[in-house]
Structure formats: structure tokens, C-alpha cells
Amino acid sequence: MSDDILLKVRDLKIGATVYPPGEKPHDIEIVHGVSFDLERGKVLGLIGESGAGKSTIGLASMAYGRGGVEITGGEVWVNGRDILKSPHSDVRKLRGGEVTYVSQSAAASFNPAKKIMDQVVEAAVEQKKFSRKEAEGRARELFAKLGLPDPDNIGDRYPHQVSGGQLQRCMTALALCPEPDLVVFDEPTTALDVTTQIDVLMAIKEAIADTGVAALYITHDLAVVAQVSDDIMVLRMGDTVEYGSTDQIINNPQEEYTQALVSVRSIEHEEKQPTQEPVLSVDGITARYKGLNFDVLHNVNVELHPGQTLAIVGESGSGKSTLARVITGLLPPRDGEITFAGRKLSPDLKGRTREDLRELQMIYQMADVAMNPRQTVGTIIGRPLEFYFNMRGSEKRKRIVELLDEIELGEKFIDRYPAELSGGQKQRVCIARSLAAKPKMIICDEVTSALDPLVADGILKLLLDLQKIEDVAYLFITHDLATVRAISDSIAVMYQGRVARYGSKSHVLTPPFDDYTDLLLSSVPEMHLGWLEEVVAHRKMESAGN
Amino acid sequence: MHPIIKLVSQRLALGFLLLFGASALIFGLTEALPGDAAQAVLGQSATPEALANLREEMGLNRPALTRYFEWLGGIVQGDLGQSLTNKLDIAESIGKRLGNTLFLASVAAVVSVPLAIFLGLLAVRFQNRWPDKLISAITLTTVSVPEFLIGYVLIYFISVKLGWFSSLAMVNDSMSFGQKLYAVALPAFVLTLVVLAQMMRMTRAAILNLMQSAYIETAELKGLSTFQVIARHAFPNAISPIVNVVMLNLAYLVVGVVVVEVVFVYPGMGQYLVDAVTKRDVPVVLACGVVFAAVYIGLNMVADIVSILANPRLRHPK
Amino acid sequence: MMKNIPISAAIGLLFTGAYFFVAFAAPLIAPYGMAEVVGDVWEPASAEHLLGTDNIGRDLLTRMIYGGRTTIFIAAAATLLSFLTGTSLGLLAAVLGGWADQALSRTVDLIMSIPTLILALVILAIVPVTVPILILVMGLLDATRPYRLSRSVAVDINVMDYVEAAKLRGEGRMWIIFREILPNALSPLVAEFGLRFIFMVLFISTLSFLGLGVQPPLADWGGIVKENKDGIVYGIGAALYPAVAIATLAISVNLVADWILNRTTSLKGGRG
Question: Considering only CB atoms, which chain A residues are within 8 Å of C161?
């Protein structure tokens, strides 16, 4: 039985040197004694939020520390030897021979100056696993297996000549080419759009099954890892939270933290019916960016009712953020008009009144760049009060404290700088800043996308609560359908600059669907075992039926 | 059209435009500023009549634009006019001196470029260890002292105390290549010191930046040796940043040459220019200014064109 | 704030401070008059003349002290001029954008296509060489560098979401420049100020050495080299003292600039 253990990790400790500006560099421990086993041909999912140490652990199985990271203790056994004690020449044979790596960003991980084929076969040839010719043949087989177009010739292209999803598959081929015993997949689908992700995910899963390779699959998305792994280890801040079979973790999580991860995005939100006049109506908007010779938005029509949420959902390039720019006046449209609170808005920012600006606020995706790092929380929230309501001194401070209480932070945050806040706290301050203007409507541009799932959940709950108190309408831009379900009253699905489907939440999410909405909805990973196979089987049946 | 040809021709056109603009700027400055060639010849105490006569004689009363285009037309045909002070043909004087200057600069470049790249790589190899720290300490010192002082410090210790080289760098046509090389050894050494540090530091930064790329990590995770990682993956991408560093520093070297020539009394362009400025010989100053600007603009243009040619995205368009 | 000061920066501050003190207090410190001939030509160092005498018998220490005063004064004035002109135009170009940015940036490109020293020489061939003119020429020619730096820093900041948020709030241009952009551009600009000052010290010394800078009998470090360079072939090192002075001043300012740059890259509590 013990012969079947490919990778054995015992009490792994990893440290890093940090260089805080203005302070002396010092060492910290980022992984505090993690142990697990991986049998040949099995897949172990490592899951956790940012800072959990999951990538670091993955790279430790190749005896590699990124940047200032160093393995400080424990044992890592691969094929029966402790690689942390092996000589460097042996470690080099291990890397690229026995263990290979697939990174999150294939675009950065491929050398821009060399052809794809040269890079895919390099490790196999270098480690003397195959001759150059054999390796190329094998690479072509893998290209075909991974569903790449024109598998015989795609290797002759340069990395920038293929798309992101294709390059991620090429990276998988690169990892599988030397016939390794173990592949470390480090968030291989995170950078992809959801409809691309499902194909790459399936390709990876089939390639793992066909080649019988073992894998460490690292991700922050429990629904994704549930589809590919046999076992799952949940990590948090460098410690193991829970370690068990995929079935047990998903269906019977023991630890509170795991339970929270499994039940994330299960906010119940009752859909509101449109009653009064809309607060915002977008009529026939067509827009393009300066210097481009094609339209990014084509005849977009949507409405948003007071105190409600309209979700604009779509993948990258769908035009959803452009729509936000048009509504705010940053990008005057070529055609169409916007009516807000009963009055027609000037197409550009300069023509808008202070009242227009006050009543239409915006919250950004990246909270850390949405706040001036040289201003305190008090200044950031206080400025709209000063600017729109001419509040000064104690009156202003009283209102700032009220707002800080509303966003559940409290008065003690008033003198802090953004750098002293966590990601979720920053986003809360941004919410308070927009509420300070007492707006009728807030545009929320991917406000939870950069946050870990549990933190994002907290932000969504807060936004829903505030909507009830302040009676503010949200235009919620997102690519994440779970978020859409959780918060919207009506939905517009955007695809290639057009509204593909629009209506109340129940209407948009109930079949029959148009093709794109169907593809989009069915591509969102669901937190149950076998979902991936079901979807793929369903799609195959449909295309066979056509 | 292939995007590379398009970009390169655009860059070439920009270079010529800049050269044209630079000549106009240099000429325009001498026009716009108070004082002119006639004033320069006669000095501050000249009588208005004498000035007027001389202006008439030198053709300075005609419109500036006409004179600019005459001057520019002359340059294109290799006619740079006459010196005010000794009435000699400027093109002829410059021809010989430019050769001397380029010889000195080339010797310095041939020594400093490979040395700087080697030391830069050494600093990367031993990053944050003592060789790296020593190199950055020397860099800090040499960029903190003007060229002419480095020159005199070397003259003081090497030619006066040790007596190895002459403190004057005289060259003439009758000298053999070896003799010339010996003559320019000390000034070339000063120039090398002046650009070496900067070039080394920039090479180090460029390579370090490159080594942090994700594709270098990919190569390391393929089990390649450090040498293979550098030769196969870092080097092809390093050409463009390194050429840029080299060109920028060669451009800097061309300026450093002016001062170093004065220190060693070397018969080159720099010495010629400084003499002309002191004597207020405006036509010579104009001519030298344009030649220096042309070399400088040309080197910067080469750097940009190499970057364009080395960019795989442009070489292999979609 | 002074608690965490690293040793290198402390040394830098100390020396920089000392040089500026000597520059201000030159007439009080210098043992003799600036142009006073007090001995023989190139006397060796002695109790009366700690550094010896120069090419016409003036006390060299006195010349060095007054020379430092001139060099530091001209360099500081030119740096201020360069910096104020360059950064205000750079910030303006970044915020205005459009044709104003184009016009300014292309002009700067043109000026920078000619080496600064060469352009300065061309100008000095025409105009009379006096101290105010030197400051003006050096300051304006060098303003291209602070312009480029401040513009590029400001352009980077100008596309940040917090600046967009201020624009959407309806803030005026002045608020955006002085409250949103400037506080965040300050640390690279302050460090650049130090580097420009060093460059100016080297620049004015070079011009004086070439005989096109500070004119005798006024002393400055570059001029001292020019006056005493003939002594070098006789083994008299009088011309080398300015090398030590310039190098220590430049290194000190460099150390301080490095420290400021490192210290303020921390975005935490940037009021220190």
C-alpha cells in the first residue's frame, strides 16, 4: 500500500522574508506544519482564500520557493525520497521530469520569444525522457486531446498568437509532455471567463484520467475543485482546517469554516416588483471608444426602479463596464439618451449639475486604488459631506461616525489610512463614501470580484441591508452569476455589446433560454459532485440532437 | 505592410524630424538670444556703426528664415561655412577632429560595453552579496564626481606619480594605430569609468527585471540549469533592454568626450567646440552643435529600432 | 520620525547639513579674504594655510569655502528653478491632456534630443556669462527632466480610480492636482530633487572648468580646478581638493534621496 504513495508531506513549514518599507526586513512563517499523502493517479485539491499558503505548498512539492520564500522544516517525499534533503542535481531531475507545474497565467509563463512547441517539449527532452521527435509527436497528441484547434501546427505559433484559453491548454500539454508522476495545477482556470473555464476544466480532467498522472489542484473555488479532485484539503492562514474525501468535504463538512465555504452565496433575496417610475432609464445607447472604428455598445435599453437592483451580467468584453462609463458621463455615447430621476442627463460629465453627480454614485472593483492612499478614512468619507452638503466640524464628524457605524466598522477607523485596512474593510469604506452623498442610485462595478468568497458575502449582505435603510437603487455590474442570484431584482445579460436577455430575475433565470444565456448559466460551477460531467454530457446530447 | 517595416520607417522619419527640429532649435537660439555673431566678434564695447557695418558684411541683416535655410542647405551639401576667427573652412576642420573623437569614443566603448555587461551580470549573479554591494558603491562614487575631476585624479596618480602615460593625448596622422591607441589610453580610461558605472547599474536592473518574469520560473521548474535558463530563456529577451542601455550610455559618452578632450588637450570635436564657444565663433558652435545632436539622435534612434526588431510580438504578428 | 533613520542616511544628512552651513557662514569661517593673496604660489600645506595656497598665492582653504558657497548657491537656485518650472508644467500637462500636453511634451522631446551640455554651450556662446544667466540657462534646460518625471507620475495617478471618483464627485482641477495627485507624487519628486541638485553641482563645476561658468575672481569648485590644473604635472594636488568636496556632497545628497524614496514608498500614514 505504501508503494502507492507518490507524494508524502510531513509537518511542512515554510517561511518568507518580508521587506516592509521603512522597517528592517524580517522572517515570518507562512505555512505552519502541514501534512498530507497523495497516491499515484489521484487528485488532491488544495483550497483556501488568499494568504492560505496553498500555492506555496504546491511549489514545495518541487522543492521550490518563489521569491523570498524558503522551506524551513518538515519532509517532502516524492517517489520514496525526501527531496528537501536530496542533492541539487537530483532536484533538477525531479523538476520537469517527475513533477511539473501549470501556473495561473499561461500568458506570462510562456517565453514570448520562443515557439510554443519548443517550450512544450523542452523539459521532456532535457530530462532525457523522450527524443525531440518523440516529444513533438507526444505534444501533438496532447494538443489534440486537450481540444486545441489544428493540433499539428499550433506548436509552430508564438504564445501571443493564440488565445488565453488555448494557451492555458498549451501549458497543460507542457506539463504532461514529459510523462510526469505528478502535476501541480495552480489556479489553472481562474484567469479565464466562465464559459472558457468549463472547457479547459474538462480538458484537464480528461487528460488527468487518460494519462493516469497524479495532481495537486490548487484553487480558491470550492465548486471547481469538487469537480476534479478525489480528496480536498482546506487551508487557512497556513494551517490545515479540514482534510478529507471530496464527498465528505462538500456534503458533510465538519469545521465551521468549511461549512461557510460550502454554503457561500446562498443569500436569499426576494425579488421586488417594479412599481413606480424608473430612477434610471437607458434608451438606445450606442457607444465606442475614441480611436476605435467599431461600436462597443449597440442600442442598449434597460431600466432601473427606485430601491431595486439591476444586475448587468456578462463576460469580459461584453461591454458591461462601458455601459457604466456611459451612465456616469465618462464616455459620451454616440447615440441614445439617459434619463435619471426624471431628468435627461447631459451625455458628458462637464454638462452635469452637482445634483446629478451627487445622486449618482459609483463603487469600484479594486477598493485599494479607489481610495487616495494619503487620505484618512475620515477625510475620504467626509469629503462628499463637505462638498455636497457643506458640512463642517462636529456636524461632519457626527455624520462620518454614523456612516462608519452603518458599514459596521465604527468610530475607531476614522483616523486610519487605507493601507491599514483589510480588503473587505476598504470596500466598506468605499460604500460609506458613496452613501455619504445620499444618492438615489449607486453603480457597483464588480465590487466583490477581488474579494475572498466569505468577505464578498459579507459585502453583499451589507449592500442589501443598506438598500432597505437608504432606499437606494443599485446598478450591479458583475460576471459572477451567483452574485446576481443573491442580490438582483432584474437582470440584463450582455454579450458582445448587446443586451442578450433582459427582464425580472425570475424571467431571466427561467427557461426557455436563448443560446448565450443557456451557455453562460450552465457554465457556472455548481457545488455538487458530478456537475461537470452532467453539463458536458448534456451539451454533447444537445449538439448531437442538432 | 508588415508592422515592423511600418514601425521602423515611422521611427526613422521621427529621427529625421527631430534632427530637423534640433537644427532649427540651435539656429533659432542663436537668433532669439540677445547678441549675435557681429556682437561676438567686436565685443560689448563696439560702436553701433561698426556693428551695423559688420552685420551688413556678414549678411546678418537678411531675414532669419532665409539664412536658416541657406545654412541648412549648406549642411546637407557638406558646407558648414567659415570660422569667424581664423576664416578656415569648418567642414574641413570638423572632418579630421570628428575622426579623432570617434576614435577615442570607440576605444572607450569597446572596453566599457562588454565590461559593463559582464559586471552587470556578475552583480545579478551575486545579488545583495558583497560583489553586488561593492559594484554599487563604486557606481555611487563615479556618478558623484564630474568627468574632468576623474581625469585629473588619474593624471595625478598614473601619469605624474607613476609616469605610465602622458598627461597630454596628442595624435596625428603620422602615428601608427598602436601609437594612437597608447596616446588615447588614459582619456579612454576616464570615459570608460564615466559610463561604466551607469551602464552596469542599468544592465543589472534590466536583467533583474527580466529574471523576475514568470517564464523564467517556468524554465527553472523544468529542471534546467542556471546557465540554460539564462542562455535559452533570459538572453533572447534581454537583447532589447541591453541594447537600449548601451545606446543610452554611448550617447552619454559622446557628451562626456567634450570635457575629457579639454582635460587631455586632445584634438577632437569637444576641444574645438569649447574653443569656439570661448571665442564666440558662432558658425563653428552651430556646426559642432548640429554634429553632436545628430550623433545623439542617431544613437537613440538605433536603440528604438533594435527594440522594435527584437519584439517577438511585432516580428510574428497574429 | 528621526528614530528609524538608517546610519547611511544619517551620515548623508550630517554631511549635507555641514556643507550648507559652511556655504551660508563662509565669511565667518574662512580664515582669509576670498581673493586675498596671502602667500607664494602653490605653497604646501602648513599651519597658516591648512590646504596650502593656489596658483597666485591665495589661501586654498578659503577658496574652497567660498567656492562651495558659490557652487551650492548656484546649484540650489538652478535646481529650484528647474524643479518649479518642470513639475508645474508636468502636472499641468498630465491633468489637461489633449493638445496642451502634446505641445509641451513634443517641445520637451525636442530639447532633450540635444545633449544638455551641448545646448548650454551653444547658448553661452551668444549671451554674456553672468551668475543669473547661468542659473537661468541651467535651470530651464534641466526643467525637461522634472517635467518628464512629474508628468509620467501624474499620468499614472490620474488614471487611478480615486482620481476618477473625485472627478465624478465634481471636484475642480485644483483639488485634483493638489489634493489627489500631488500628495501621491511627492516621494519620487523629492528624491528627484536631490538627484537634480547633484546634477547641477556637477553641471556648474563642468561649465566653470571649461571657463564658461563662474568667472574669476569669484571662487567656485570647478574654477579652482581650472586655476590649479597646471600644477598637477608638477605633482601639486591643489586641483584635486574640489573632487573630494564634490564627491562627498554628491554622495551625501544621494544617500538622503535614497532614504526618502525608500521611506515614503510606504503608503501608510504618509504625513510623517
Answer: 364, 366, 369-370
pLDDT of residue A397: 94
Express as a percent the part of chain B with pLDDT over 70: 95
Coil/strand/helix, residue B203? helix
* CATH fold of A280-510: Rossmann fold (3.40.50)
Task: End-to-end CA distance of chain A: give it in Å, rounded.
Answer: 48
Question: What's the gap in Å between the CA of B115 and the closest CA on chain A?
Answer: 26
A41-58+85-262: CATH topology is Rossmann fold (3.40.50)
Rg over alpha carbons for chain C, rounded to the nearest Å, is 22
In this chain, the answer to whether the domains covering A41-58+85-262 and A280-510 adopt an identical fold is: yes
Chain C residues with CB-CB distance to B281 below 8 A = 125
Q: What pTM did the predictor assign?
A: 0.83
Judged by DSSP in three states, A507 sits in helix
| Cβ atoms of residues A84 and A74 within 8 Å | yes
- Average pLDDT value over all residues in chain B: 83
Give the cell for residue C229. Answer: 590644473
Between CA A57 and CA A327 the distance in angstroms is 45
Give me the domains of chain B, ranges plus CATH numbers: 99-279 (1.10.3720.10)
Closest by CA position to B150, among listed A475, C242, C92? C242
- The two beta strands, A43-47 and A231-236, are parallel
- Write down the pLDDT at residue A265: 63
Size of interface A-C (CB pairs under 8 A): 65
B11 by Cβ neighbours in 10 Å (0-12 / 13-18 / 19+) ranks as middle
Q: Say if residues B60 and B38 touch (Cβ distance below 8 Å).
A: yes
d(CA C180, CA C91): 12
* Count of Cβ atoms closer than 10 Å to residue A114 Cβ: 18
In sequence order, the 6+-apart residues with CB closer than 8 A to the CB of B235 are: none
Q: What is the mean pLDDT of chain A?
A: 89
